[in-house]
What does this fold into?
Amino acid sequence: MNALTATNRNFRYAARILGLDSKLERSLLIPFREIKVECSIPKDDGSLATFVGFRIQHDNARGPMKGGIRYHPEVDPDEVNALAQLMTWKTAVAAIPYGGAKGGIGCNPRELSMSELERLTRVFTQKIHDLIGIHRDVPAPDMGTNSQTMAWILDEYSKFHGHSPAVVTGKPIDLGGSLGREAATGLGVFFATEALLAEHGKSISNMKFAIQGFGNVGSWAAKFFHEHGGKVVAVSDITGGNAMDLNDLLVHECDVLVPCALGGVLNKENAADVKAKFIIEAANHPTDPEADEILSKKGVVILPDIYANSGGVTVSYFEWVQNIQGFMWEEEKVNHELKRYMMSAFKDIKTMCQTHNCNLRMGAFTLGVNRVAQATLLRGWE
Ligand SMILES: NC(=O)C1=CN([C@@H]2O[C@H](COP(=O)(O)OP(=O)(O)OC[C@H]3O[C@@H](n4cnc5c(N)ncnc54)[C@H](OP(=O)(O)O)[C@@H]3O)[C@@H](O)[C@H]2O)C=CC1
Ligand SMILES: O=C(O)CCC(=O)C(=O)O
It folds into this structure.
C-alpha cells in the first residue's frame, strides 16, 4: 500500500475514534503547503544533472513546522507527504511545540561526489529559503543526509537572511549543533523499548534483537541495546546482512525486530513469517496496514514510529532551544531531558490506549491528532 494511503488510513481511524468533526478532519489531512522545485547542477565532469526536490509543510497549528530532508532514489511526493503528516502527529505525541514537515530530493547520494552533493543542497536551499525559517519551518537530517548537509543549508540560508543557526537542527557541534543529537534517535528508540518491555515484565538484557538498516538510527540503537545486555543477533544495510539475504533479516529468529531503514518493509508478503514478539518502529512507517492486521492477529506488539523514533526530533527541539537561548547544554542534560520526554509520552499513549481501548498505534495517533485538533480549534479560522 502506498505510504500516503496507509498514513491517511491510520489518521482517519484515529479521527473516528476521537469523533472529530468531518470538516476539521479534512482540514487536518490536507497539507498546509506543498513545494516542488527543479534542482539543476553541473556535475564534476561538466555535464548537467537535474533533480526534483520537495518540501511538504503539513501543519503548523502547534508551532513551526519540523522534519527531516531525505536524499534517496525512491523519494516521491506521496511518500514525502506521508512523512510530513507523520511529523505533525509525532511532534504532538512528543509534546514539543512544533508542527510537521518533510523534504526530500530524488537522487542517489551514493552516486554523487561531495562537491555535487554540496551544489545540489545549495541549489535546493536557494529554491526554498523564503519558505523555511526559525519560526516557520526547520529542516533536519533524514536518510541520506547528515550534519554536513545541514551545515550547507545553514550557510546558504544565512547568505539571504543573516547568520541563522536555528534554521536547521542536526548541525555539526561547531556550528551550533547539540551534544547528543547524533545519537538521539537511537537513544530514544532504546528508552522507548525499555519502557515497552518493562510493561511486559521484561528487560533489554538477554533479549535477541534484529536490526534492519545500520545508518544513524540503526547503529546507535544497536550500540545501546548491546551496552545494556541485549543480544544483537542480526543487522543489515543496503548491501546485505550478516550471513543472510537482505530481506531474511525481517523474518529472522529474534525477540525484538527493529526496522531502521525504509518504509513499507513489513507487508502482507512477509508479515506472517515474522518471528519477533515485539516490533520497534525506528524507521518511519515500516509497517503496512495489511501487515499491521496480520501481526496483531499473531499477538505481535508494535511500538509505532510516531513515538518510537521521536527521540531525534525531541533533541532537535533542544538544539533549537539552545540556539535561541544562545546557551549550550551539557550532554548529560540533553539525555536526561530526552528520557523524561520519552517516558512522559509513553505514559500519555498508554492512557489513550486505556481510554479508547485501542492498540499502541491508535493510542499514539489519537494522542497526536487530538492535540493538533485542540490547537487548531483554539486558534480558529478567521
Ligand atoms: N536520522 C534521524 O534522526 C531520524 C531518522 N528516522 C528514520 O529512520 C530511518 C533511518 O534513517 P537514518 O538512520 O537517518 O538513515 P541513514 O541514511 O543514516 O541510514 C539508513 C540505513 O538503511 C540502510 N538501508 C537502505 N536501504 C536498505 C534496505 N533495503 N535494506 C536494509 N538496509 C537498508 C542503509 O544502508 P547503506 O548505508 O548501505 O546505504 C543505511 O544503513 C528512516 O526511516 C528515517 O526516516 C526517524 C527519526 C529520526
Ligand atoms: O529532527 C528532526 O527535526 C526531524 C527528524 C525526522 O525527520 C523524523 O523524526 O522523521
About this structure: Residues 66-68, 90, 140, 142, 169-170, 284, 309, 312-313, 316 surround 2-oxoglutaric acid (ligand 2) (CB under 6 Å). The CA atoms of residues 92 and 237 lie 31 Å apart.
